[in-house]
Design brief:
The protein is an alpha/beta fold. It is built from 16 helices and twelve strands. The chain binds zinc ion (ZN).
Length: 407
């Protein structure tokens, strides 16, 4: 009724006029009382603590609701003097578990302002709740258990001034670890948490071409094949294409072809997007590029064919990559000649990706979703709060909405 379960006794319900609240007096049923707030072990009572306390629950219509109870302290052999556990709230929480689960559920689905207004709660409180829910989830299911094929990526936030390093599990599709920073020290913390025997069980590690990742993986995972993330390789081709578009545009502008230059500027998205996602207008734009600018269109085809390499995968993908490399060598477009060299240099890791058919989609979508979350989490002061929100959402730790089936 008030989001309390069988181990809670309701002693009374009162309407408190000045605060327009329903206050429900409760206590833990015998057997659920005098337990350590940290480990739930039964312990002797220490004192009455700070007396009666309130935990906010879900609103009842326009009224706020609170559970009110004594909050005695107990002496735990392991945790010392701590506030006793209560069945209706997490340890250290000022809100009931039902309320916190609602907050967590909404935090993965709605905007910061919607959540603040609808639940009448401050954003920093949301951050603390998300951290508590994730910590509880991680204690119940270790995200680092059973890892075999992982992906490592770095994601920028705060307009590219700050970075977090993330690790995803290719087999479950989950985010399993994240920490601020992008260097060997950061990644070393992950492998230390994983431990020697679990590091040895890792068979595949996909990552971008960063040397610090390669070095750290080599130092910790003796049995892992290193694979190049297709997502990053295809992004290189996008950059090379954009270079060609900019050069062409500059040349047209300097040559007094202002209309041509303007049209080229408008072609950016048509060239950049995947062809299956083009609008009719963008398709027309692409056809125009094909007709009037052969070099730019060739650059576009080079980018698309490289994407096809990773869509094909396996032996076919490797054969297409051979043909692509010889095309890139002869294409006389400087940025693609350079890209060809770069890809040759990382050929071994790229072939491993094609051989083991690691999905490009997982790292790409995690990358996109975290970028989105960094915007939602903009109000959080610390990267840790943002990481907790990412783990809640992408690590599979979001609780179902109370009293509903898990979605
Ligand atoms: Zn304890």
């Amino acid at each position: 009724m008030f989001g309390v379960e069988k181990s809670t006794v309701i002693d009374g319900v009162e309407f408190e006029e000045e605060s327009e609240s329903i206050v429900v007096s409760v206590r833990p049923r015998k057997g659920a009382n005098q337990r350590c707030g940290v480990c739930q072990r039964r312990c002797p009572r220490y004192d009455h603590g700070e007396g009666r306390r309130r935990w906010r629950g879900p609103d009842l219509g326009l009224l706020r609701s609170f559970l009110e109870a004594d909050a005695p302290r107990v002496t735990c052999g392991e945790h010392g003097v701590v506030v006793a556990s209560v069945p209706w709230a997490r340890h250290g929480a000022r809100h009931t578990t039902v309320f916190e689960d609602t907050v967590a559920w909404m935090a993965t689905r709605t905007s910061k302002s919607t959540l603040e207004v609808l639940l009448r709660i401050a954003w920093r409180t949301v951050g603390a709740i998300v951290a508590r829910v994730v910590a509880e989830g991680v204690a119940a299911r270790d995200p680092l258990a059973g890892l075999r094929r992982i992906g490592i990526d770095e994601i920028s936030y705060k307009k590219g001034h700050r970075y977090i390093t993330i690790v995803v599990d290719h087999d479950t599709g989950r985010l399993v670890w994240a920490a601020p920073g992008r260097d060997r020290k950061t990644l070393n913390a992950f492998f230390t948490a994983l431990g020697e025997s679990r590091c040895a069980a890792v068979t595949h590690v996909s990552a971008d071409a960063a040397q610090w990742i390669a070095d750290e993986v080599a130092a910790h995972c003796p049995n892992a094949v290193r694979c190049a993330d297709a997502f990053h390789i295809v992004a290189w081709a996008g950059d090379a294409l954009d270079q060609v578009r900019r050069d062409t545009w500059n040349a047209a502008r300097k040559g007094g072809m202002s209309v041509h230059a303007r049209d080229l500027k408008g072609a950016r998205y048509a060239l950049w997007k995947n062809p299956e996602n083009l609008t009719d207008r963008q398709q027309a734009k692409l056809a125009w590029v094909a007709k009037v600018n052969h070099q730019l269109f060739r650059a576009y085809l080079l980018k698309e064919q490289l994407r096809e390499v990773f869509a094909l995968k396996g032996e076919e993908g490797k054969q297409l990559l051979d043909r692509w490399l010889s095309w890139a060598r002869r294409c006389r477009i400087p940025s693609f000649v350079e890209l060809g060299r770069r890809i040759s240099k990382h050929r071994q890791a790229i072939d491993a990706t094609l051989d083991h058919r690691l999905s490009n989609g997982l790292v790409e979508s995690t990358n996109t979703k975290i970028r989105l979350l960094t915007r939602i989490a903009f109000g959080f002061k610390s990267p840790e709060a943002m990481i907790a929100l990412a783990m809640l959402n992408l690590g599979g730790y979001c609780p179902p909405l109370p009293d509903r089936q898990a979605a």
